[in-house]
Design goal:
352 residues; alpha/beta; FAD/NAD(P)-binding domain; Polyamine Oxidase, Chain A, domain 2; 2 domains; 11 helices; elongated; binds flavin-adenine dinucleotide
């Protein structure tokens, strides 16, 4: 069993930011991730199109600071022109203009560039990919972590950068129950934000909607997508694209054939933005609800809400255990958001 001072489980942005900080402080650590790549909910195509998170907002200074440190640029979400909306299946498409134009930012090259840049600051030998953890226990004041492939790791400080509902089962799988019953129940009550969503992206040869005075924003009570946005990259070499959130609830979506959902999304884009939208160069579709490392059954069946983890109540228990809960959902300021994830990790590091 190999021993490290600090062990991080989960290689999304929370785990990667923590790993970068530990590397900066020259501490002895390992980052363990179940999947073949880092990023977790952050996923971008090779062309930089975001299939997970897309935006951050002007008040989220921790995102801006991290981007500056990693030398990554950002740009304003395109909202110039009219939006389109449809209220009933047979009602005409209506145009409108959002006078306020809520400001949001996107990352040059997609959110995935943040993960790539973060991973470049973490020594390769400190990262263990394709390594799902299936059990966590504590004996003689040392954490013991078992991997599905049979490997074992031990550590002093354990950092869990995972969706809250994925945590308790790992403890309950071990014989010795380390966490209090109240903490287990509280973890099980925290929903993982956006984990029940599905996102669709259509890539085009050009942003024809912009030429027609449209912003690329669309709203629909007909579906399958409920909200659509311009997903073009920052410069003219970047792909022209539209993306949308599929509004069919996850439980109803799961039995559907994926290709049927994709076809229905393309048909809807044609209705909203005209015939040019019917011929995308390529399409991308990710149903996050089907990723069992992110979404739990309860996340899929409940109405969407943000986590409310009561840090003050469990602080003493966690401190005594040398256990840090650092996923985005544990943020006390912006639970579920990338900004929340970064802030929360930075706060935990400052208290080390
Ligand atoms: C469709 C969508 C749109 C979103 N839009 C936005 C947005 O516009 N702006 C915004 O701020 N946020 C948005 N979010 C939320 C944002 O993605 C999250 O806040 C952020 O990515 C969470 O990062 P994390 O590292 O805390 O968790 P995650 O990214 O969930 O990472 C957890 C990691 O833990 C790993 N893991 C789980 N179980 C195990 C195990 N047993 N062993 C080892 N590893 C394990 C997982 O594989 C995963 O890599 C969106 C999310 C989705 C899905």
């Amino acid at each position: 069993m190999s021993f490290v001072e600090h062990l991080i489980i989960g290689g999304g942005i929370s785990g990667c930011v923590m790993a970068r900080q530990l590397a900066k402080h020259q501490l002895n650590f390992k980052l363990v991730e179940a999947q073949a790549t880092l990023g977790g909910r952050i996923q971008s195509t090779e062309q930089g199109l975001d299939l997970g998170p897309t935006w951050f907002w002007p008040h989220q200074h921790s995102v801006e600071s991290l981007l500056a440190e990693l030398h990554i640029g950002f740009f304003e979400q395109y909202t110039q022109g009219d939006y389109v909306y449809q209220t009933e299946p047979n009602s005409p498409i209506t145009r409108g203009r959002d006078q306020q134009g809520m400001l949001s930012y996107r990352v040059n090259g997609g959110m995935g560039t943040v993960i790539t840049a973060l991973s470049n600051t973490i020594p390769d030998e400190n990262i263990l990919l394709n390594s799902p953890v299936n059990q966590i226990s504590k004996r003689d004041n040392i954490w013991r972590v078992t991997l599905i492939n049979g490997g074992e790791l031990s550590c002093d400080h354990l950092w869990l950068a995972m969706p809250p509902r994925k945590i308790a089962p790992l403890f309950l799988a071990a014989d010795n129950r380390v966490l209090s019953e109240a903490l287990v129940a509280h973890l099980q009550a925290q929903q993982t934000w956006m984990s029940a969503q599905a996102k669709f992206v259509a890539v085009y040869a050009k942003a024809f909607w912009r030429d027609a005075g449209l912003s690329g924003q669309g709203f629909s009570r007909v579906g399958p997508m409920v909200e659509i946005n311009d997903a073009c990259g920052a410069d003219s070499n970047a792909p022209a694209a539209l993306f949308g959130f599929v509004g069919i609830p996850a439980v109803n979506r799961q039995p559907l054939d994926e290709q049927q959902v994709i076809n229905a999304c393309v048909t809807q884009l044609g209705k909203l933005f005209g015939d040019a939208a019917l011929s995308p160069i390529s399409t991308h579709y990710v149903d996050w609800a089907s990723n069992s490392l992110i979404a739990s059954a309860a996340d899929i069946s409940e109405p969407s809400q943000h986590a409310h983890f009561n840090e003050a109540k469990y602080k003493a228990e966690l401190k005594k255990l040398n256990l840090g809960l650092i996923g985005a959902e544990f943020s006390q300021t912006e639970p579920g958001y990338i900004a929340g994830a970064i802030d929360h990790v930075n706060k935990q590091v400052s208290e080390l």
